[in-house]
Specification:
Blueprint: H1 19-36, E1 39-43, E2 55-60, H2 67-75, E3 80-85, H3 92-100, E4 104-106, H4 120-131, E5 135-138, H5 156-166, E6 173-183, E7 191-196, E8 200-202, H6 204-211, H7 216-235, H8 244-257, H9 264-281, H10 285-303, H11 308-313, H12 317-358, H13 366-393, H14 395-417, H15 419-423, H16 425-431, H17 435-465
Parallel strand pairs: 1-7, 2-5, 2-6, 3-4, 3-5
Antiparallel strand pairs: 6-7, 6-8
Helix pairs in contact: 1-2, 4-5, 5-7, 8-9, 8-10, 9-17, 10-17, 12-13, 12-14, 13-14
Length: about 475
């Protein structure tokens, strides 16, 4: 997407076939992502521009194929028209969903034999979306990938914004960087952070500055300056590390180190700092020992369904009762339902795990393959089981199956997520009767870890900065 559109956009802006259908689909995608991911954290949505007086280009990093636009669609709160590569529109079900969502087809050289392709019509459609004050989405890296960091950004987002203003837009256009951070990217029931960053405002003042010198160099300079600002802000929203465990443990280190009351941007800065600094000192014996100690502390919290924030502040008697109840629910409700649902859902999970590896065309599409096949497969299975029960055994069994199947599926997810606690079933069950003592021990363990983290940060501060 390097060429600037030359003609005034006269295309009809793409619209979802039905705004109601789009809203329904977005809610379904939100529900599906909550099932696929164990934890979804959405940050920064309150800072998004007012939809009544601005146009928006959501600009995300692109590490996970079709899951990236799915998350932005589900959690941005806006109707977002994505630019999607043209071959996707030929896929039967996916193509229909893209048309429902008002997506725009982009013709890439690599998809059409390497020959030069014209995207003038696509640019005009995207500009028409912005001229109406609506939102579009684009991934400036140009292609989904499995690199550990951002690849160089394309300039398409900046060019579309400037061209839209040149064609008469009276509304400011905001480039909103979206950081998508997947923890254990390909894995079902992992975690994801969706972070909307500080918007980049592009308005007529920016256009006037660009036009003070009417030449190609001035235009290219403006395009590259906007793209570089977007690059800096996107890098500020992404955390790069080799494994999810490292991200998880170093995030625990960050929580142990950070002062109380700091804002979210400072927390993110600390996370990036720890992740970038850790490789420089990872082989030091005291760093290895601290890493293992923090990992053990976090595992102990997980076994007791406790949170580091609660340990730092202390639990009230009511919170202790709730944690005891949660553990008993796992043992006496979720575990029996798990036994009902396991013969149905575990084979599907195994099949998806295998299919994700062998059916996916690239490594960055593994999670997308699992998500799409799981969403369609489990939906069809559920409908089939309910219809079979109604037709073969009557209304009451049909209703029972309709209720028990999703409940048992939820129990399977819950039990798998709490497998660490179940591996230590006797020990963790005894802990619920001595939870007050357990919390006191954890608070003391945390206090000692805080001191060790602070000591090692001071010790290695100069070596990691230089």
């Amino acid at each position: 997407m390097e060429a600037t559109p030359k003609s005034t956009p006269d295309a009809v802006p793409p619209k979802p076939r039905s705004f109601l259908a789009y809203r329904i689909l977005a809610r379904l995608l939100r529900f599906a992502t909550r099932i696929f991911f164990r934890n979804i954290e959405v940050v920064g949505r309150a800072s998004l521009p007012n939809p009544q007086n601005s146009a928006v280009i959501f600009c995300g990093n692109h590490p996970n194929s079709l899951l990236d636009p799915v998350l932005i669609t589900a959690w941005s709160g806006r109707i977002v028209h994505f630019a999607a590569k043209a071959p996707l529109f030929a896929v039967p079900i996916l193509g229909a969903l893209l048309r429902i969502m008002g997506a725009v087809a982009i013709r890439r050289r690599q998809d059409h034999g390497g020959g030069k392709q014209s995207n003038d019509d696509a640019f005009r459609e995207l500009e028409a979306v912005l001229l109406e004050g609506r939102a579009m989405g684009i991934f400036p890296e140009g292609i989904s990938h499995d690199e550990s960091q951002l690849v160089p950004l394309k300039t398409g987002a900046a060019r579309i914004a400037l061209s839209t203003l040149a064609h008469g837009s009276t509304l400011p256009i905001y480039l909103v960087p979206v950081g998508l951070v997947y923890f254990t990217r390909h894995r079902f029931r992992s975690s994801v952070l969706v972070q909307f960053g500080q918007p980049i405002r592009i308005d007529q003042d920016v256009l006037q500055t660009k036009n003070t010198t009417e030449n190609t160099e001035s235009e290219e300079s403006a395009v590259h300056a906007i793209t570089e600002t977007l690059n800096v802000r996107l890098r500020g929203l992404t955390i790069n590390a080799e494994t999810w465990e490292r991200v998880w443990v170093l995030d625990g280190v960050r929580r142990l180190y950070q002062p109380e009351g700091i804002d979210l941007s400072e927390r993110a800065r600390l996370s990036r700092l720890f992740n970038s600094s850790y490789p420089k000192v990872a082989d030091e014996p005291d760093v290895i020992a601290l890493y293992d100690a923090v990992r053990g502390y976090l595992l102990r919290l997980s076994a007791d369904s406790l949170d580091d924030v609660l340990i730092a502040k202390g639990l009230t008697p009511a919170q202790i009762v709730l944690h005891v109840a949660a553990h008993l629910t796992l043992l006496f409700v979720s575990l029996p339902l798990f036994l009902v649902g396991a013969p149905i859902f575990l084979p599907i999970g195994l099949a998806l795990k295998v299919a994700g590896v062998f059916v996916s065309p690239r490594s960055d599409t593994v999670a997308t393959t699992k998500f799409v096949l799981g969403f369609l497969g489990i939906g069809c299975l559920y409908v089939g089981l309910v219809m079979w029960a109604f037709l073969a055994h009557g209304t009451w069994l049909g209703l029972l199956v309709a209720l028990v199947v999703p409940a048992s599926g939820g129990a399977v997810i819950h039990v798998i997520a709490r497998m660490h606690a179940l591996r230590h079933l006797a020990k963790s069950t005894m802990r619920i009767f001595t939870l007050r003592r357990e919390i006191r021990e954890l608070r003391e363990e945390r206090r000692q870890l805080v001191l060790r983290v602070a000591e090692l940060v001071d010790k290695y501060r100069s070596s990691v900065i230089n």
